[in-house]
Amino acid sequence: MNALLARHRAVLLAYLGMIVLLLLTSFVSQGFLSGSHLRTMAVLSAFIGIVALGQTFVIIGGGIDLSVPWVLNCAAVLVTLMANGADGPLIYAIPIALAGGALVGALNGFGIALFGVPPIIMTLAVNVILQGGILIYTGGAPTASAPPLIQFLAVGRIGPLPVVVLIWAALAVAATLLLSRTAFGRYLYAQGTSATVAEFSGVPTLRITVLAYTLSGFTAAAAGILLTGYTAQAYLGMGDPYLFTSIAAVAIGGASILGGSGSYIGTIAGALVLTILTGLLPALNLSNGALLVVYGVVILVTVSLASDAVSDFFAVMTRSFGRRDNAQS
Amino acid sequence: MELIEAVGISKRYGGIVALSRADFRADAGEVHALLGENGAGKSTFIQILAGIIRPNGGTLHLAGRAYQPANARAAEAAGIAAVFQELSLVPDLTVAENIWFRREPLSPIGTVRKRREREATLALFDRYRIPAPAPTREVRRLTLAERQIVEIAKALSRDPSVIILDEATSALPPRETEWLLQLSQDLAAEGKLVIYISHRLAEIRQIAQRVTIFRNGATVATHDTAAVDDETIIADMLGRRMDRLYPPRIATATDRTALKLRGLSVGDRLADIDLDLKEGEVMGVAGLQGHGQRELFQALFGVSRSRGAIEVWGKPVAIRSPRDALVGRDGIALVPEDRRSHGLLLSKSVRENLTLSVVPRFTRFGFLSRSRERALVDEQLRTLQIKAGTPDQLAGTLSGGNQQKVIFGKMLLTQSRILLLYDPTRGIDVGTKGEIFRLMRDLAAKGYAILFYSSDLPEIVNVADRVAVLRNGKLAAILSGDDISEHRILREAMVEARAA
Fold first, then answer.
1. For residues A276 and A297, what is the distance between their CA atoms, to the nearest angstrom?
2. Which pLDDT score is estimated for B331?
3. Which of the 8 DSSP states describes residue B140?
4. B376-392: per-residue pLDDT in tens?
5. CB of B283 within 8 A of CB of B451?
6. Residues of chain A contacting B303 with CB distance shorter than 8 Å
7. Rounded to an integer, what is the distance from CA B392 to the centroid of its chain?
């Protein structure tokens, strides 16, 4: 039991933090815990959570995906342009956009695993290339509005539950199974812990890396399509906030940013914490600029609290006072 | 009064007792050996001396005064310098920068006086005749042996009165080992205390006046080295387990060739190796450090690119990556040199480490079967007698010997019948060494073909059926039967053949 607690301590901390934050916010802001408001937050969390899904896989594998903003943006623009406000073309528009996202991800993976380009450079470059490409393609003009079906997916409900949250839940189950119950998951953790040991153990490192980035491209594209439904149309720059939030959600969820550990359950908590924060801060009546500053600082503090570095620091501190030691020799 | 007096030192980690009652007395002017199996508490004890951890009980005196260092810096200030097995150098800094790390000679405006630093380094090298690499070289480009020497130089730079050497020769080639043995004696002659930890009895006999033996966290005995025989020392270390270190060498080789090399070359480090490894054979690979052994093993495991022909069980193969080598029963498995950075995921469980190479064996319809994985793990834990609390214990918390057993288990699970063992007993206690040698003979009897390198020559002499000696990347000789002796191997490894 103790061991179980220790292993999942980071995730438990994230959820505990989320609950504390929720209660805190409900004090500051009346009506925060109302059904409709909670539903809105769940929907907003879903967008972060879906982008962060692929990011979770990439980070566990020891990489990072900085191309999510414009993969998301491209998918959104592509789908709305192809559909042009009608549901009919979606039958091919959605698969094309998702496949495009996956393809860009695969490209990231090949560049990193096959040609040894550092993940930061590879994905950052792809992000900029996509940004430029889409500017050329659209001429910078706003695109057509989202077709009704996509709007339904993003803001519609089945019973009391928003559709997008149901989609998120299904993806979460799949992600958790993939991480904990499949060879792919096992290899991913091994590779993130030590690429050399994984290589020496016969892990198919090229395939694993490509798969992880492909998944990230896919979920970024999926989030882009769904987000158009929420904002009613695609616009340039809509993906930009998701770079920071997708990485922060993974880190708050207890994953090591250096790879080898983490879980999607944790990332979900991370997405929720980030959404509640964005809800809490406006209630403090700050100016827009001050809001951003506070937001950044709060995320910084949260992530460092959740990260190993801080728990290591505390472990060292307690050890130097000779209270509780961890077995190691 | 002796220089160091430790009485009844104990140390617990949670429920695990690392030291229960360690007594240790050593005097200035001697080389004092500290012996014990891995997990006997040697490392814990010297970490206490070096101020890295604090004991739970017992008393410690240094030169007659109570000694309780608050941290490593306090221990250094008290004149105790330790060279640990895990090296602590910064890869991106040069040799000189590492030696004077955080003690750099500074100019009035706070910049490092590079030239003075370099001169101080050279003076240091000169004073102790240190066979060290140039002060300006980056540590990341050094071999393991060179790093070990830099580490020793760093300890010496503090001019300590007590110097602790933990397995320092395990990474050193013969000539550097000689230097270190001589240095230890010189330091003792200068009136310093050298605490020397090694698993090599011959070295201890050569330089140590006294030897203290730990077993299961307690001191068993302190002997005058000259007055005690090997059997007594080993008996003290092992307790009642008095097995012979080397198992009887029963020839089990058949006529079948497991691995056939023709003209194998790697860059300019290994040239034109022709070798036939038989089914059921243990073949030793010997040579001075850096004469191609590493390249040979790396090429066969697909880590280095090679030219020439490789046949495995009669079939030509191309091995471009470890994945090409690890192909089940007809594959080639490697127990690598550096178990901490090539062999094990230290922050993952024993279970995950053991099964990492055979995940498909317990995967059904894409999903892992926990029960089938558990069966594989239990089998290995049992047959290799791996001492882990549970299979979910982290590999990094095991003793060196048990870590090595986990790597063996991982490779045995792949079912590859050709095994490459690169220095598998490095830094491992006598008991586990014996177990590993017996395992090698058992596997050979089952038809495995084993290629075996050791940095400890007597191991090759006593375990291998035949010995391939490398010199300058070429095959100098293949010795068998009575020709296998340390003397003969060294001669082949060092002396160019006379013109025939």
1. 15
2. 95
3. G
4. 999 999 999 988 888 99
5. yes
6. 200
7. 25
* Alpha-carbon distances of A233 from A11, A78, A164, rounded to whole Å: 35, 11, 16
Residue A231, CB-side half-sphere exposure with 13 Å CA sphere? 22
Residue A182 and residue B368 in contact, taking contact as beta carbons nearer than 8 Å = yes
* CB-CB contact of B468 with B475 (8 Å): yes
Q: What strands lie across the sheet with B466-471, from one edge to the other?
A: B332-335, B418-422, B449-453, B282-286, B466-471, B474-480
Contacts of A179 in chain B (CB under 8 A): none
More confident residue, A237 or B13: A237
State what percent of residues in chain B have pLDDT above 70: 97
- Percent with pLDDT over 90 in chain B: 64
Of the CATH numbers 3.40.109.10, 3.40.50.300, 3.30.70.260, 3.40.50.720, which one belongs to the domain with range B257-494? Answer: 3.40.50.300
With beta carbons under 8 A apart, name residues in chain A contacting B365: none
Confidence of residue A310 (pLDDT cuts 50, 70, 90): low
Q: Please report, for residues B27, B194, B396, the alpha-carbon distance to residue B50 in angstroms, rounded to integers and kept in the order given.
A: 17, 13, 22
Partner residue opposite A193 with nearest CB, options B41, B347, B368: B347
Provide the shortest C-alpha distance from residue B347 to chain A (in Å).
7
| Chain A interface mutation, best of B46, B86, B368, highest count of A Cβ atoms under 10 Å | B368
| Neighboring chain B residues of A202 at a CB cutoff of 8 Å | 322-323, 325-326, 357, 414
**Residue to test with chain A: of B85, B356, B364, B376, most A Cβ within 10 A:** B356
Q: Parallel, antiparallel, or unpaired: how do β-strands B449-453 and B418-422 relate? A: parallel
Phi/psi of residue B6, each to 5°?
-115, 130
DSSP string, B290-350: TSSHHHHHHHHTTSS--EEEEEETTEEE---SHHHH--GGG-EEEE-S-IIIII--TTSBH
CA separation for the pair B94, B111 (Å, rounded): 16
Residue with tokens 């009575």: B482
pLDDT in tens, A141-186: 767 789 999 999 998 999 889 999 999 999 999 999 999 999 999 9
ipTM computed for the complex: 0.85
Mark yes or no for CB contact B336/A200 under 8 Å.
Answer: yes
Interface residue ranges in chain A relative to chain B, Cβ cutoff 8 Å: 3, 177, 181-183, 186-187, 189-190, 193-194, 196-204, 260-261, 320, 322, 324-329
Q: Which CATH superfamily is domain B4-238 in?
A: P-loop containing nucleotide triphosphate hydrolases (3.40.50.300)
Q: How far apart are CA A61 and CA B131, in angstroms?
A: 41
Distances (CA, A) of A36 to A167, A228, B338: 19, 21, 58
Ranges for all domains in chain B classified under CATH 3.40.50.300: 4-238, 257-494
Rounded distance between C-alpha atoms, residue B353 and residue B343, angstroms: 9
Q: Give the number of beta-carbon pairs within 8 Å between A and B.
A: 87
Give dist(CA B418, CA B275) in Å, integer.
14
What is the second-level CATH architecture of the domain A10-320?
Answer: Orthogonal Bundle (1.10)
Reported as a single tens digit per residue, the pLDDT across B115-131 is 999 999 999 999 999 99
User: Which residue in B has a C-alpha nearest to residue A7's C-alpha?
Assistant: B392
In chain A, where the domains are located? 10-320
- Asked whether the beta carbons of residue B13 and residue A328 sit closer than 8 angstroms, the reply is yes
Chain B: residues touching A (Cβ < 8 Å): 12-14, 16, 18, 41, 43-44, 47, 53-54, 71, 301, 303, 321-323, 325-326, 334, 336, 341-345, 347-348, 352, 356-357, 359-360, 363, 366-368, 392, 396-397, 410, 414
Q: Nearest C-alpha of chain A: how many angstroms from B348?
A: 8
Angle between helices B400-413 and B430-445 (to 10 degrees): 20
Residues A57 and A182: beta-carbon distance below 8 Å: no
Q: How far is B149 from chain A, CA to nearest CA, in Å? A: 24
